[in-house]
Amino acid sequence: xxxxxxxxxxxxxxxxxxxxxxxxxxxxxxxxxxxxxxxxxxxxxxxxxxxxxxxxxxxxxxxxxxxxxxxxxxxxxxxxxxxxxxxxxxxxxxxxxxxxxxxxxxxxxxxxxxxxxxxxxxxxxxxxxxxxxxxxxxxxxxxxxxxxxxxxxxxxxxxxxxxxxxxxxxxxxxxxxxxxxxxxxxxxxxxxxxxxxxxxxxxxxxxxxxxxxxxxxxxxxxxxxxxxxxxxxxxxxxxxxxxxxxxxxxxxxxxxxxxxxxxxxxxxxxxxxxxxxxxxxxxxxxxxxxxxxxxxxxxxxxxxxxxxxxxxxxxxxxxxxxxxxxxxxxxxxxxxxxxxxxxxxxxxxxxxxxxxxxxxxxxxxxxxxxxxxxxxxxxxxxxxxxxxxxxxxxxxxxxxx
Length: 401
Prior knowledge:
Blueprint: H1 5-13, E1 20-24, H2 31-44, E2 52-56, H3 68-78, E3 86-91, H4 99-109, E4 112-118, E5 136-140, H5 146-154, H6 161-174, H7 185-208, H8 213-225, H9 233-242, H10 249-261, E6 265-272, E7 277-287, H11 290-297, H12 303-317, E8 321-327, E9 330-338, E10 341-347, H13 354-365, E11 373-377, E12 388-392, H14 393-398
Parallel strand pairs: 1-4, 1-5, 2-3, 3-4, 6-8, 10-11, 11-12
Antiparallel strand pairs: 6-7, 8-9, 9-10
Helix pairs in contact: 3-4, 6-11, 7-10
């Protein structure tokens, strides 16, 4: 398995301090493998094996850990005769009721370095979250990026330029879930189906006690089939009504939130560029992995949609806060902010056609500030002009930033 140095470096940065390390991300994005890589490093650094406690709550071996009392009893019994600092790793912590009570007590009562994972973005919401408020660092793990796929395959063979294109096409089709890389094409599809169904069942339906499963599945397919399109809850309700599906706007909003909490869908708010006001209606949704788009839409999907989704994923991997821009009724795909840095980005399959090129440039030209502006496409010819940089998407994805 590829060493995920980006995430490991973050863990090393906070090693042996008082902060609880909380690793979140979609199911099977590599959180468990990351913990195991880190644990192996600790052992290689001379940490005694008995001082490292790893609990996988998805394993039947730990079915007896139902709530924080069970977890407390297990941990305190486990460390009773251990000398020195202990390292606690708990995978999928949300499966223990009131887990925050345990984690806070370990932080207060033990000489412990604590690492936990969860598959829900709202793992720290609710009243109990106040027990560890301000005492944790949150690290979000994503499936492999295109650059990580290049690194993975480059360890097997030297990559030629055509190999990089082939790997990009594979990324578009099958996504970046690490566990799928060992399979052939048919196996990759089966693996994606398994992950998708597990997320929907375990992380959305069961966790939120959803009753209207047929509607949820239709809603998910509709949103994924239309990623990058501007939606309002009312527009979704009206569309579904035409399909003879009648549900309330509250139900739609709740189901979309459930999907976002499970990292299946990622929401991007819209922003008025001139006023910097966040618009409360008409948002966009993106999918956590391009493979899920192909899974739901098939080979007839829009290349423009999937490219926009991939760029969005890359931007949030790079820790940009991303909104969708609006200026003079023209859309700017992404406004990207990180610290004092701002970028504007348009994404298109191609701008060889003059009308398409003029349309993509127009929105950026209307922005009068001096922040960098980019157009990302699959074209190999450079159409940069008027201070707007045109770049190939593959080259963008290969960059460090």
